[in-house]
Design goal:
- The protein is of the alpha/beta class and 430 residues long.
- The protein has 2 domains: 180 residues, 3-Layer(aba) Sandwich (Rossmann fold), CATH 3.40.50.2000; 172 residues, Rossmann fold, CATH 3.40.50.2000.
- Helices cover 51% and strands 15% of the residues.
- The protein has 15 helices and 14 strands.
- The strands form 2 sheets. It has an 8-stranded mixed beta sheet with strand order 3-4-2-1-5-6-7-8, with helices on both faces. A 6-stranded parallel beta sheet has the order 11-10-9-12-13-14, sandwiched between helices.
- Strand 7, helix 6 and strand 8 form a beta-alpha-beta unit.
- 40% of the residues are buried.
Length: 430
């Protein structure tokens, strides 16, 4: 099958989780014998074309026009995606299916689908309403409406959790059967052969300190502020604990100010951006990983921690709530509740037997349920559904057109007969 992936981010350009999902899914589809072409945004000095171990990656610029705003930037990006796709189709022939990832590529996906009659599948990774706890301004309304348009134009829609299925069904009124729940995956061999690097660990904490690790973007919905608020209670119960916050984002200065105001400067460390190798090392150094999100469609970072063998605490929201079973393969806490967070973290810090139990069960779950081989197969079946549906719709349209032609012809014949009879009647009275 020839598959076209449309995405605004692809490694090495990583803004959120979409880049990794598209990358890993594409690699697995290639391994399964499919052809995958990715069209994405070009940033800095990245090449316009790259053969990424079998995945054809084409990167496009915006027009040489400075956009007035983000909306204009998006439209320019989509125009160039369409241009590149047209060139590829003219050169190599039509794709069997288009897979659009999130609302930013809606216009290119819709145009290509309607221009060439190619079945369209979309993945909604998150919603604007979910990220902002509702729609509060015109920009958010525009994004929300564009998300709806993408789901409307798609033959099949993929989401990564049951939470997201319910969310977009409620927001966009989609038929329930049109929405396919396929979780994000992880390379199950990611941490094979990686051991704890004590020299690396000592850059962030003393040997006697237990590392509580947050890994992710520093934005409100990730809930880092609640984890910082939980630290006094954690330190009361376990003094030799240290919070390591790994990542970057718009809340960095605000979070640092919160740490200073609470007098936690010696117990909280901000690492800034970490590359892939550093991320792997950090997971292996951590004693507890925490993901205290207030909104989380899925939570791939939790899978990474679980696979790395780190006892994991998550908030009971969205996809995180579906990934972890409390006290079986991790711990849960109430979202936005520092006391609940502290209790779950302390239980792991003070109970080595519980840590061993949840760690072992977490690894088993990740390997069985979140491997890319299974996920790619489920995605391929969704492509097949979209193709069959498009063919059925095309056949139904042809049947209706043929019926309309026959009806028109029959109507014409009827009019001719009526006119002839009318003529004969007039002749008879003449």
């Amino acid at each position: 099958m020839k598959i076209l992936m449309l995405t605004w981010e692809y490694p090495p350009r990583i803004v959120g989780g979409i880049a990794r999902v598209v990358h890993d899914l594409s690699k697995r589809l290639i391994k399964d014998g499919h052809e995958v072409t990715v069209i994405t945004y070009r940033e800095d000095d990245l090449p316009y074309y790259e053969d990424d171990k079998g995945v054809d990656v084409y990167r496009v610029d915006n027009y040489m026009i400075n956009p007035n705003n983000f909306t204009d930037w998006i439209m320019q990006l989509n125009f160039n995606m369409i241009t590149k796709a047209n060139e590829l189709i003219a050169e190599k022939g039509k794709f069997d299916v288009i897979h659009a990832h999130d609302w930013l590529v809606t216009y290119s996906a819709k145009t290509l689908k309607n221009s060439y009659g190619i079945p369209l599948v979309s993945t909604i990774h998150a919603t604007e309403a979910g990220r902002n706890s509702g729609i509060h301004n015109e920009t958010q309304r525009y994004v929300n409406d564009t998300e709806w348009l993408l789901t409307y134009e798609s033959s099949e829609v993929i989401v990564n959790s049951k939470f997201m299925k319910n969310d977009i069904q409620r927001l966009f009124g989609l038929p329930y059967e049109k929405i396919n729940v396929i979780p994000n995956g992880i390379n199950i061999n990611s941490y094979t052969g990686i051991e704890r690097d004590y020299d690396f660990r000592r850059q962030y904490a003393a040997d006697n300190e237990k590392i509580i690790l947050f890994m992710g973007r520093l934005v409100y919905e990730k809930g880092v502020q609640h984890l910082i608020s939980a630290m006094p209670k954690i330190l009361d119960g376990y003094h030799d604990a240290k919070l390591i916050i790994a990542g970057k984002g718009g809340m960095l200065d605000e979070l640092k100010a919160q740490v200073d105001a609470m007098g936690l400067g010696e117990k909280v460390y901000f690492t800034g951006y970490l590359n892939a190798k550093q991320v792997s090392k950090m997971y292996k150094c951590a004693d507890v990983s925490v993901f205290p999100s207030t909104y989380e469609p899925f939570g791939i970072v939790a899978l990474e921690a679980m696979l790395a063998g780190v006892p994991t605490v998550v908030s009971d929201v969205g996809g995180l709530n579906e990934i972890v079973e409390h006290r079986v393969d991790g711990m849960k806490s109430y979202a936005g509740n520092p006391n609940s967070l502290a209790d779950s973290i302390l239980e792991l810090l003070l109970n080595p037997e519980l840590c061993d139990k949840v760690t072992k069960q977490a690894k088993i779950k990740v390997k069985n349920e979140f491997n890319w081989a299974k996920i790619a197969q489920d995605t391929y079946f969704t492509y097949e559904k979209a193709i069959c549906q498009t063919m059925a719709e095309r056949q139904a349209k042809q049947i209706l057109q043929e019926r309309a032609k026959k009806a028109k012809k029959a109507k014409g014949t009827e009019n001719e007969i009526t006119n002839l009879l009318s003529f004969k009647q007039r002749q008879a009275f003449a």
